[in-house]
Design goal:
The chain has 324 residues and is of the alpha/beta class. Among the domains are: 144 residues, Crotonobetainyl-coa:carnitine coa-transferase, domain 1 (Rossmann fold, 3-Layer(aba) Sandwich); 82 residues, formyl-coa transferase, domain 3 (2-Layer Sandwich). Helices cover 44% and strands 12% of the residues. Helix 4 packs parallel to helix 7 and helix 6 crosses helix 7. It is elongated and about 85 Å long. The relative contact order is 0.11.
Length: 324
């Protein structure tokens, strides 16, 4: 549905929504929430069972509270962008993982609050922020920095703490290999014909292999350069070494595994049936379907208002007042 909460005629609608809601989700600053009557104090007073879930860039307290930002701000302030690039050339991820991660954590927080409500009968305010999400993902590196003062610089696609772990070229594309642990490293050495590296002091454990990863990446790149991506992946898989091809977006849609078990279909009016990424969890072996097509903006406004107790005449009045 659509609603202009600041419109003169919208106040009663907001109150009814609060009274009927199990969860209210908002990604606007606290001042805006208060201006439209959705601040926690008001929501909790009207409906003590309601859960209010909010997302901001920096949180609601601290020196940066109230500042605006997007996914990229969380990325660059978490240290991940510095580590993802090269010295003097930081690289942000094109994929908005901070946005998606914040939404996922907020949803988990809502589920926890609803579960608690079954016992207490009372809702909670759940807060998430982009920067907190990004920091949660770089936390292990922050601990290393605080304890060991490593001052790591960017290493591009090469992992700084294990090896070989890098993206390299094949005869017809690129792939990633990720070798972790002594047993896996020994298998990789045998695969590429370099058993002499086992026991080499430069590669004695994961940290050492990370420190000397440039040499390992070079060896792996030379091995991959004589093979197609499919050939290299097949041999790596047979040796139980994690690897995967670097796929274009078209390649993702065409990949036989992804297409068969991880894509779903959605029908969009005016567009037709399109492939979409399926729900990333399964329940009892099944992936939940989408059901109806995505609704158009305002498609269900009258339906929702009817559920809130407005009759046809009252809805017409709200439309006339530009409340909806």
């Amino acid at each position: 549905m659509t609603l202009r909460p600041n419109a003169a005629a919208a106040g009663d609608v907001v109150e009814r929504i609060i009274g009927a809601a199990d969860v209210i989700v908002a990604n606007v600053p606290d001042e805006t929430l208060a201006a439209i009557g959705l601040d926690w104090e008001h929501v909790h007073a009207v409906n003590p069972r309601c859960v209010l879930a909010t997302a901001t860039t920096f949180g609601t307290t601290g020196p940066y509270a109230g500042r605006l930002g997007f996914d990229g701000v969380g990325q660059v302030m978490s240290g991940s962008t510095h580590l993802a690039g090269h010295p003097g050339d930081p690289m942000k991820s094109f994929v908005p993982w901070v946005d998606y991660g914040t939404a996922t954590l907020l949803a988990l927080g809502v589920v926890a609050a609803l579960h608690e409500r079954t016992t207490t009968g009372v809702g909670r305010r759940v807060e998430a922020s982009l920067l907190a999400t990004a920091l949660a993902n770089t936390g292990h590196m922050l601990i290393e920095q605080a304890v060991e003062h490593t001052d790591r610089a960017g290493t591009g696609n090469r992992h700084p703490a294990i090896g070989p772990s890098d993206i390299v070229a094949t005869r017809d594309g690129h792939l990633i290999v990720q070798v972790v642990g002594d047993a896996m490293f020994a298998r990789w050495c045998a695969l590429v014909g370099r058993d002499d590296l086992v026991g080499d002091p430069r590669f004695v454990d994961d940290p050492a292999r990370g420190d000397n990863g440039v040499e390992l990446s070079k060896i792996h790149a030379e091995w991959c350069a004589t093979r197609t991506t499919a050939q290299a992946i097949s041999e790596l898989a047979a040796a139980e070494i994690p690897a995967g091809p670097v796929l274009t977006l078209g390649g993702v849609l065409a990949d036989p595994h992804i297409a068969s078990v991880m894509l779903d279909q959605a029908t969009v009016p005016g567009v037709g049936t399109i492939p979409v990424t399926g729900y990333p969890l399964r329940y009892d072996g099944a992936m939940p379907g989408f059901g109806d097509s995505p609704p158009a903006v305002g498609e269900h406004t009258d339906d929702v208002l009817g559920e809130l107790g407005y009759d046809t005449e009252a809805i017409a009045t709200l439309r006339a007042g530009r409340a909806v």
